[in-house]
Amino acid sequence: GIDGVVRCDDVSSSTFPGTDATQHGVNTLFQEIATEYPPSSRVPIETGAVVGNGESGVADATIRSATARCYAELLEEASALCAYLTPQENTIVATVASSCLLAFLIPHSHFQGFLRSYYDAAAETNPSASIPYPLSLEERLVNATLSNQNHTSGGVFPYSASRMTSLVADNDGFTSSSFHRFLVQGLRPYLSCGIAFNLPPNDIGSKNNINDAENGISCDAILFQAELDLIQLLAMAICPNPPNENPLGTEMPASLSMEADTEAGGDLDDVRQLANSTLPFSFQLSYSDRLQFVRLCTELVIPEREDGDSRNGYRNDGALIGTVLHQLRSALFGFASYGAHSEKDAGVSYKALVNVAMNEGKSLSIQAEFHRLLHATIESKSEYLAFALGDCLRGLVTRYNESRYYADGAFVRFALGLLGDRISDGIRMSMASDEKSGGELTVGTTIYNALMNENANKRQKTGGVLSTTAKKCKPFHLVALLKVARPLFYFLLDSNAGNKSKEKSGLVMEAAEHVAKSQLVKDITLLLSYPSSLAVVQSASESLALALSYHGKYMDDKSNVKHLYRFTRQALENASGSVETVQALRPMLITASKQSRTFAASLLSYSIKTCSENKTMMWKIAALISSARPSVVSNRLAELEGCTQDSDKICPDTARNEIMTRLSCTMVSYTSASSESMQRCLSLSEGITNHWSIFQLVRFSFTTSNFGLAHQILNQRRLPQHCSRQQSFLWMTILLEIAQAEEMLGNNGASGISDSLEILNSSHSTLVSLAATVQNNPSQKDMSHTGTLKLGRFGFQLDFLRVRIDFLNLCMITRSLCSEIIVTGGNVSARSNLVRHNIPKSFGMLESHYIYIYRLHGLHHCQQTRSILRICIAMCKFMRDFVDVMLSCQTKLDTNKKRQGVVQDCCPKVDERYSMGSLLTRLRTGVLEKVEVEKSKDGSLLHAPELLNLLDTLLRCPSPFPPGFFHIMSIPCSCINLSADIGVLPKKQNDDHIPIDTKGAECVDVASGLPFKLILSGVIPEEFMRSADVEFNQIIAGKTLQYEGQLYEDDDAEDTHSESGNGGLNLPMRHEPFSATLQPCGQFIMPILCEPIVREGFYRIELKLGCRDVRCTEWAMPTTTPLEIFLRVEDYSE
Fold first, then answer.
1. What is the largest CA-CA distance in the chain?
2. Are 1107 and 1115 in contact (CB under 8 A)?
3. What is the structure's pLDDT at 999?
């Protein structure tokens, strides 16, 4: 039980003096354990160690039984039940946690006196205060230390004053290892469970609540004070001497200083006086202990208040959350600055600093820490530490803004301006270093400096004097700054100048933000031609690719296109024929070519004219451009061929790039590639001897829908026979069969569906066998109730191939129906009539299946995979609408039916780089609209011949496979708990209700007409977050409510719910999903408030778990068990 430190009956009696605690409902976990293991049942200590009882100081010869649990385990259990604890229970947990921590920090302190100081308000109050608040933390620490002089045994831990070394021969558990166990097993879950400062609104600032004439200080005030003490103890333990002044000197603006924080209020003198006192030096801590405290701060969680945005609006006469968190942030920064023994430990401290600032949640604190950490990044002389700070700043930006359309515009503008100035200063520093170097300047460097001078002068504000920040900027500093700038483009929305409803100030801020964003893009463009570091070029290219993706109108300006082309050309000239520079520029080249045809054509012309001698570099540039703009390269493919005809032998790299270029150019055609082009690719592939390079070509052939080439390469090079493992052989065999089936379908169209389906079904069976062979861990089998992870690592491949087979089966059924309509003249049988009505619904179901695959797997795969999945969704959507119009007798298309579902949300635009995407766009805007016009004139027309021709055209058009098909991985499932808040549910009264099969789910009783609350909590696996292609910080859940049946079988009972699926009731539904913030450790707690249910009966609530990424896209997340709960709703008023 709770022993060795304090007895719970003492705590409860102090909480409510003069009364029985059980009468006030204070039945906490601690009291129950103390009752189960009373002091009389505890075994005596053989060594004679004593533990005081807190009353008279007389030694107690008993400590705890073998079955009793230590404080670490109790805090761990209380943290797991944090969502269900009452305010009184929270108070006891908080006071015990802070008292235990003090007892470990100051072993010779009277910790029971410190614990009772929270509850004995009448005995220990501040006489100068108008309200009887407890004494300050410093005064209570001094009292706890001095009051133990007259108690030789009471409350003293068996430690020496040097290093908490046990003075007894038999280790009783209170040693250094036990201390770390308390921190890791007890205090860590307590700080990360979200119980800290989780107080009801308006409970702390009220005098009536704080000062209770009968009971002294209320539980909420005690809880608040205990948590403030805990944070202050953490701060003093981490850094005994935090920096008194701002280490940034004059760099920190006065508006961001703590003194200027009008939101914090309170008096900072008490906090600073305690932080600067000598008390922290009396803590018996080693460096490893302080580092452990720093790690605890990385998982600190302070929940958001439901009544406002600010998380620290509580006020007290002695302390404030904002002030103590400011002390904790200062301690963490001081530890990282001069207390850490290694760069890795300093990086952990900076990570904890960002987490504390994020949990504080104030915009002013976030901006101050962003400014301080950005300055520390430039000041850092270590590459590791600069990158660690860059990661912290990146996390600060993404976590604070969370999603694109929920971002804080003021902070984004602040970070944009500050970061733009730092990058501009770094560019000017690069110019100064080149000018001061005594070496000879090349032509490229001269042009580089001239162009940078032209752009940097526009950013110059005062006389062109370099700041102290710019004078210390090195290449790794620029890489770190670009890493921070990258996520900002997620949250910089395009300005809407045409919106006249906005106020003038809002339009001015949008215009200023647009100018700053464009200037930052231009500054990053300058770094493409950075002469001395390829890492800077690559980082600038990645940043530009993201910036151009979310700044679509930037490339519409010809001057911006010219500016980007000049520096891209300069970067290629500085490369001196190195293909590594082209690879570093790859993200920017693809994105810029996709957005600007002029840029793609100009860069291709440059590569043909100047890179003809370096054929590898020329074909590499052509391959990158063709992947984004295949039409540009296909028009000049003859010129590229002319540059390589004089060569007797082509190196493998050049051959591979030429093959990839030719394969990409075939995407502009609606039919299969020409035989001449395929023969050229086959002859080039013969010069490649590396089997991995050959497999890469096969993979690229699949993603560009050149299945004929993939089939011939797999056959001629005999890749399956060269495999050394059974799994690899089966995988190559599957790819060979898929390539053969898709090639047959592309050559024969609709007439080749039967033969193609036979081969695809065979490959699917082989894939099932392969998945079963690779499944080494039986525990992963049937992990998800959805079936997606039923076979582990090949879940995406099985789902995609299965839906592809279903689509071809449905096309074959449609073709047979059209043939029957043509033969019979429209007088089809009743069975065929039913098929005609069900075909559009079936295509709609396939559309839903593709959407499910997209939402479940899209987060973990690349953008190209998501684009191809959107094309598949659009293809099923088009077939649904087209068949519905051509084979139905309706006069016009049901527009409401077209918009049904979530297709408009998940695939707003089809990528027209692929021939299938452009074909669907042309068919929808051209053919489908004309058919609708004809149907409006005569609705009895059945366009069966036209539908046959369309099917043949659609099946002959190459349909690419997503690159994710070759990425074999399993999606980790999350272990989620769904339960009801027992505090709002009634007690069960009747047991004669109809039994219902809950399939293992929990069934709870709910009073009709009363609201209730569900609690969704769990931990997202770290592997899931690492495998995500896009960052996410929000967990969402959608709720559905379904009626299951009546309660009793009485004769008079009316089954009013049997007429429809929902019983004819307007069941409460929520369109917007519930959301919760995901903590860095992967934990989350999501309270779900449910509307009252009036009618009696059994109901089932099902939840779908998901996440929302920084782009505001929502994805599905698999769980180990179904998230459902059954409700027994009954009227208890009678």
1. 109
2. yes
3. 65
The C-alpha atoms of residue 917 and residue 910 are separated, in whole angstroms, by 6
Quote the mean pLDDT of the chain. Answer: 74
| Short-list 596, 527, 526, CA closest to 561 | 596
Nearest residue to 286 via CA among 351, 238, 216: 238
Instruction: Identify the pLDDT of residue 766.
Output: 94
What six digits make up the tokens of 822?
A: 């043509």
- Per-residue pLDDT band for 780 (boundaries 50, 70, 90) equals very low
Question: If DSSP codes are grouped into helix, strand and coil, which group holds residue 1104?
Answer: strand
- Categorize the per-residue pLDDT at 318 as very low, low, confident or very high, splitting at 50, 70 and 90: very low
Q: Report how far residue 548's alpha carbon sits from residue 561's, in angstroms, rounded to the nearest whole number.
A: 11
Query: What is the rounded distance in angstroms from the CA atom of residue 620 to the CA atom of residue 652?
Result: 12
According to DSSP, the β-strands at 1124-1130 and 1097-1109 are antiparallel
Structure tokens at 857: 């797997």
User: The pTM is what?
Assistant: 0.82
Integer Cα distance of 303 and 1015 in angstroms = 15
Tell me what pLDDT residue 938 has.
58
Distance CA 303, CA 286 (A): 31
Q: What is the DSSP string of 353-370?
A: HHHHHHHH--HHHHHHHH
What pLDDT does 868 receive? 92
Q: Is 947 exposed, middle or buried (0-12, 13-18, 19+ CB in 10 A)?
A: buried
On the 0-12 / 13-18 / 19+ scale of CB atoms within 10 A, 365 is buried
Q: Over pLDDT 90: what percentage of the chain?
A: 23
Q: What b/e sequence results for 153-171 when a residue is b if at least 16 CB atoms lie within 10 Å of its CB, and e otherwise?
A: ebbbbbbeeeebebeeeee
The tokens for 32 are 């129950």
Q: Concatenated DSSP letters for 156-219?
A: --SB-TTT--B-SSS--S-SHHHHHHIIIIIIHHHHHTT-TT---TTSSS-HHHHEETTTEE-H
- Is pLDDT at 739 greater than 90 in this prediction? yes
Q: CA 881, CA 871: separation in Å to the nearest integer?
A: 15
Highest mean pLDDT among 696-710, 830-844, 1036-1050, 1119-1133: 696-710
Instruction: Check: CB of residue 343 under 8 Å from CB of residue 384.
Output: yes
Tell me the per-residue pLDDT of 136-152, one tens digit each, with 9 for 90 and over.
777 777 777 766 554 44
Q: What is the pLDDT of residue 806?
A: 95
Average pLDDT over residues 952-965: 90
Angstrom distance (rounded) from CA 614 to CA 572? 12
Lowest model confidence (mean pLDDT) among 647-651, 950-954, 1050-1054: 1050-1054
Radius of gyration of the chain (CA): 35
Rounded Cα–Cα distance for residues 921 and 878 (Å)? 9
DSSP 224-258: HHHHHHHHHHHHHHH-SS--SS-TTGGGS-GGGSG
Most confident of 12-16, 62-66, 130-134, 645-649: 645-649
Query: What does the pLDDT read at residue 845?
Result: 94
Structure tokens at 1002: 């929990």
In order of 118, 319, 591, 880, 918, the CA distances from 911 in angstroms are 64, 57, 13, 20, 8
Q: What separation in angstroms does the CA of 761 have from each of 131, 736, 809?
A: 79, 13, 11
- Give the torsion through C-alpha atoms of 343, 348, 351, 353, to 10 deg: -100
- Residues 965/796, Cβ–Cβ less than 8 Å: yes
Q: How long, in residues, is the chain? A: 1134
The rounded distance, in Å, linking the Cα atoms of 909 and 423 is: 34
User: What pLDDT, in 10s, does the model give residues 743-764?
Assistant: 999 889 889 999 999 999 999 9
Cα separation, 192 vs 1035, in Å, equals: 17
